[in-house]
């Protein structure tokens, strides 16, 4: 740490400790405020504006039966996002966040809608159970498109969500390979598989994992097992961090994208705030590997960026506390004896 950073941290600590409250009385809001201040290198930080980008794409392995839902649901849910009817839309409206939807690689013909951002890498990935999900060139294209989208705009806070039938399977495989653990340890019910469905999913993913070495770097893991939406989201997280934005990381799939982004883009994770602990079984394991403690734990497992949107008011309040709350001196309040 440079002398400048040490001086800033000391000044920051004094600023938080001098607020009109007992030391540490605001708990994690204080550490969150400190993180935001470091991201913006300011004692008057802002988290007033927020944008959610939802990346949507399909997965070749969906046809093998890794999900309780048919692949057509990806396209149907994108239309639902565009018409404003999904949970992500409702939460965005209720919190005042902007929302955009990106076609990263939905199966079939491109959807013709002026509000849909087209960044199609292909009409879905290859079947990662049998072969690499994408080429090196497709991965590079997805990462660059994501970086550009994540870095664009002047909002303070960036949230990223995803939609893609089969993407919990893809995320489980990517995380297992980056962490070097058995994919069965990270495999859950996804969209609601029953016991037989879960057993079939575990068998298929174990077979897929057997194609490659037990541990891979992030780029190779994404190429072999990723989805276009997961790769693009990882790029977007890196791009948003480069632009100095606060990045609120959603649930399991977004956290796997963050895991990959951390390995590909130096120091980007300093900007990451982890929104919630998903009910998806592998999420806690990935959070532990990242040494991340999420803000919320509400049993959610929807994705779409919904958890990130719900965490934004906490981020906004933490920044406002540091920026606007009176100190003992400014308020004329006596400090501790």
C-alpha geometry: elongated
Mind telling me the CATH superfamily name of the largest domain? Answer: Nicotinate-nucleotide-dimethylbenzimidazole phosphoribosyltransferase (CobT), large domain
* Largest sheet strand order: 3-2-1-4-5-6
N-to-C series of helices and strands: HHEHHEEHEHHHHEHEHHH
What is the tally of helical segments?
A: 13
CATH domain class name of the largest domain: Alpha Beta
| Proportion in helices | 40-55%
Oligomer designation = single chain
Tell me the count of domains.
2
The number of distinct β-strands equals: 6
Strand content: 5-15%
Q: What is the CATH architecture descriptor of the largest domain?
A: 3-Layer(aba) Sandwich
**Would you give the CATH topology of the largest domain?**
Rossmann fold
Overall mean confidence score, pLDDT: 95
Keywords: Cobalamin biosynthesis, Glycosyltransferase, Transferase
Family: Belongs to the CobT family.
GO biological process, one term: cobalamin biosynthetic process
Pathway: Nucleoside biosynthesis; alpha-ribazole biosynthesis; alpha-ribazole from 5,6-dimethylbenzimidazole: step 1/2
